[in-house]
């Protein structure tokens, strides 16, 4: 039952991200750069659905049906949720920026490979090329994701300052001013990247070493 559930979950995620990536690719070859401007309007709903469902992975790890470390996965998921729902979804002006299209491409490349590998692993199937790709593709792409996320935050700051979105006054003359919170989060984003990158690199070394031993047996 556990494997059947995980297979269905990974399959749903794979289909969702594959649809997004295929849609973006077809639109780009059909309309060129113009397709990048309305990326969020055409596939934003499916992206938000996929990222929302991905929060289930924290529950999977917590209850033990998925073998992974909770904190690094928490950092990766919250990173995307904050960028997608707080920074992009709340500001129409940001939704038309090229950085949104770039972010979605990076996220989907990583997730298509990761969910394909995980889906096959549940069935006991493994391919050396796919295993290597799932443990290596993130090395150049993940830092680029973080840079794109940081740039999206930077571009959003003037709009949050102008419109006061999510900024609110509290009792005792206190206030939450979101631009300050986002500037602080920029620092945390790069600190979190170092921690996550170190964890993923260590995981890659262990997985590829075990996979190499299995191939020799």
Automatic annotation (TrEMBL):
GO terms for cellular component: endoplasmic reticulum membrane. GO terms for biological process: fatty acid elongation; sphingolipid biosynthetic process; very long-chain fatty acid biosynthetic process. The chain crosses the membrane at residues 7-29, 137-157, 177-197. Pfam families: PTPLA. Its EC number is 4.2.1.134. Pathway: Lipid metabolism; fatty acid biosynthesis. InterPro entries: Tyr_Pase-like_PTPLA. One of its GO terms (molecular function) is very-long-chain (3R)-3-hydroxyacyl-CoA dehydratase activity. Keywords: Endoplasmic reticulum, Fatty acid biosynthesis, Fatty acid metabolism, Lipid biosynthesis, Lipid metabolism, Lyase, Membrane, Transmembrane, Transmembrane helix. It catalyses: a very-long-chain (3R)-3-hydroxyacyl-CoA = a very-long-chain (2E)-enoyl-CoA + H2O; (3R)-hydroxyhexadecanoyl-CoA = (2E)-hexadecenoyl-CoA + H2O. It is found in: Endoplasmic reticulum membrane; Membrane. It is a multi-pass membrane protein. Signal peptide: none annotated. Its main location: endoplasmic reticulum. PANTHER family: VERY-LONG-CHAIN (3R)-3-HYDROXYACYL-COA DEHYDRATASE, VERY-LONG-CHAIN (3R)-3-HYDROXYACYL-COA DEHYDRATASE 4. Catalyzes the third of the four reactions of the long-chain fatty acids elongation cycle. This endoplasmic reticulum-bound enzymatic process, allows the addition of two carbons to the chain of long- and very long-chain fatty acids/VLCFAs per cycle. This enzyme catalyzes the dehydration of the 3-hydroxyacyl-CoA intermediate into trans-2,3-enoyl-CoA, within each cycle of fatty acid elongation. Thereby, it participates to the production of VLCFAs of different chain lengths that are involved in multiple biological processes as precursors of membrane lipids and lipid mediators. Belongs to the very long-chain fatty acids dehydratase HACD family. This is Very-long-chain (3R)-3-hydroxyacyl-CoA dehydratase. It comes from Heterocephalus glaber (Naked mole rat).
């Amino acid at each position: 039952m556990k494997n059947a559930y995980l297979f269905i979950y990974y399959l749903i995620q794979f289909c969702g991200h594959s649809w997004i990536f295929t849609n973006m690719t077809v639109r780009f070859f059909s309309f060129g750069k113009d397709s990048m401007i309305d990326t969020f309007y055409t596939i934003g709903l499916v992206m938000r659905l996929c990222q929302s469902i991905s929060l289930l992975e924290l529950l999977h790890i917590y209850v033990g049906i998925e073998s992974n470390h909770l904190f690094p996965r928490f950092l990766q998921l919250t990173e995307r949720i904050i960028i997608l729902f707080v920074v992009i979804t709340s500001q129409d002006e940001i939704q038309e920026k090229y950085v949104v299209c770039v972010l979605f491409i990076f996220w989907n490349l990583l997730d298509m490979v990761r969910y394909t590998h995980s889906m096959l692993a549940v069935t006991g199937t493994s391919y050396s090329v796919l295993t290597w790709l799932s443990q290596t593709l993130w090395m150049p792409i993940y830092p680029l994701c973080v840079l794109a996320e940081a740039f999206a935050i930077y571009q959003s700051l003037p709009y949050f300052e102008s419109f006061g979105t999510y900024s609110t006054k509290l009792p005792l003359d206190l206030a939450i001013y979101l631009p300050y919170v986002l500037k602080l989060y920029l620092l945390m984003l790069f600190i979190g990247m170092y921690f996550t990158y170190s964890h993923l690199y260590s995981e890659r070394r262990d997985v590829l070493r075990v996979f190499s031993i299995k191939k020799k047996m």
